[in-house]
Specification:
Largest sheet: 6 strands, mixed
Number of strands: 14
Strand order of the largest sheet: 1-14-2-3-4-5
Mean pLDDT: 84
Shape: globular
Helix content: 40-55%
Radius of gyration: 28 Å
Order of helices and strands: HHHHHHHHEEHEHEHHEEEHEHEEEEEE
Distance between the termini: 48 Å
Number of helices: 14
Structural class: alpha/beta
Low-confidence stretches: none
């Protein structure tokens, strides 16, 4: 899959690179040779992530992370997003032009057919050159100033895309924003009023996430003074060697009530392919996290309590990987361990899509906390329940708060990313406060 993605992106690189080469030659006719080749060399240098993936797939991506200096790698990843921002509107415009041409051909064919049926009728669209042949002999005057303006305008989209994507590179390293949401609880549960839960998700240790950045995330979590901490999966990225930095982050968390809960994400299982899931779970638990897999626990807080549960990341069982419990069975198992006794019930699920099944089960819960989507990393805004993002155009629950018949879902935008680029979608920590209903 990664190799196919690399090949596809490399082809897009090549096509856009060819267009850029032609425009440089046209824009600088006197120095076209050295300018175009210099631009092509720089373009190929920054396109190296796609080339790594096209040649070696997943191994190439890992080699990129290990051997390429981080500033160059982040700049190159930013270029991938710039290509997306350029290719999407150009592709849409090309599709529209093709549709219009096809429509004109259909109409022209209809006119020819009508003329053959009525040979005495006048032509619908007479050729101006045939009516005034002397006009066709005179070439139109060329407005050089207008031509230069149009040529310069064609650079506006690529320049804007590069500027926005490079801004997104810097934005991906900013301090996480804190999103505060309220969870209503029964008024008689006074011991829970004002209780806070801080959520961290999708850190992706090892994927443009070094020790210094992890310390920033740790400090941001601890600065909130939350009573409980939850991590909703994808703390690791792709290899068991990332467990060391991951556990360093967990050991540094300081929830006021002393408990940190963890649910498994898909990347924990990807990392487990270089070891086994038990090794990952053991390392996380030794660092102080309570790893919940299709189970729930009662959290005593003074004279009151809440239920904290989590489900495993759903899987059909890939090659070399044992199939895990079906999603519905996992939901039934975890929610079934939460007594319907009036205490708030919080369910951790890395993938927000599980809310579709969970919300319609007869087993109730109050709030599901998820991640996985990274908020799309490029957000064009939200219309109703739909976050507009080109990276996840078909998904539904991208980012933010959703509600269905009294059951709530909050999707955290994550602290790391597939790409080190975030546009209108900063890294996020969620702070949930329990308030009287």
């Amino acid at each position: 899959m990664y190799q196919l993605a690399g090949i596809a992106v490399a082809i897009v690189h090549g096509l856009l690179g060819l267009a850029l080469w032609r425009r440089l030659r046209a824009a600088f006719p006197r120095h076209g040779t050295w300018v175009s080749w210099l631009g092509a060399a720089g373009f190929l240098l920054l396109a190296h992530p796609a080339l790594f993936m096209a040649v070696a797939g997943w191994s190439g991506l890992r080699a990129l992370q290990r051997h390429v200096p981080e500033p160059l790698s982040m700049a190159a990843m930013g270029l991938q997003v710039a290509l997306l921002l350029v290719a999407l509107p150009l592709g849409i415009a090309a599709a529209v032009r093709a549709a219009l041409r096809a429509l004109r051909r259909v109409r022209a064919g209809t006119d020819v057919q009508a003329a053959s049926v009525h040979p005495d009728a006048a032509p619908v669209h007479p050729d101006a050159a045939s009516v005034h042949p002397e006009a066709a002999a005179q070439p139109e005057a060329v407005d050089e100033r207008r031509r230069r303006v149009v040529a310069a305008a064609t650079w506006a989209l690529p320049a804007a895309a590069v500027a926005v994507s490079m801004g997104g590179v810097f934005a991906s390293r900013q301090r996480p924003v804190v999103t505060r949401i309220a969870l209503p609880v029964r008024r008689e549960l006074t011991g829970l009023h004002g209780l806070t839960i801080a959520q961290l998700s999708d850190v992706h240790v090892g994927n443009f996430m070094d020790a210094e950045r992890l310390d920033e995330l740790r400090d941001a979590m601890n600065a909130l003074g939350a009573d409980l901490h939850v991590v909703t999966g994808d703390l690791l990225d792709h290899h068991v060697s990332q467990l060391e930095l991951s556990t360093r982050l967990l050991r540094g968390l300081r929830p006021a009530k002393g408990e940190t809960f963890f649910c498994m994400g898909n990347h924990e299982y990807i990392a487990a392919r270089s070891a086994d899931p038990a090794t990952i779970v053991k390392g996380l638990e030794e660092a102080g996290a309570q790893v919940l897999i299709d189970e729930a626990r009662e959290v005593r807080l003074g004279g009151d309590r809440l239920w904290m549960g989590a489900i495993d990341y759903p899987s059909r069982g890939r090659s070399g990987e044992a199939a895990r419990r079906p999603l519905r069975d996992g939901l039934t198992r975890a929610l079934g361990q939460m007594r319907d006794d009036g205490a708030p019930r919080v369910l951790l699920s890395h993938h927000p899509g599980t809310f579709v099944q969970a919300r319609d089960l007869p087993l109730p819960f109050d709030l599901m906390l998820s991640g996985h989507t990274h908020g799309g990393q490029i957000s064009l805004g939200r219309v109703g329940e739909y976050e507009l993002t080109p990276l996840l155009p078909a998904a539904h629950y991208h980012k933010g708060l959703y509600e269905h018949r009294g059951r709530r879902l909050y999707v955290n935008a994550g602290a790391g990313g597939w790409l080190p680029v975030r546009i209108n979608c900063p890294p996020e920590i969620t702070l949930i406060e329990l308030v009287p209903a």
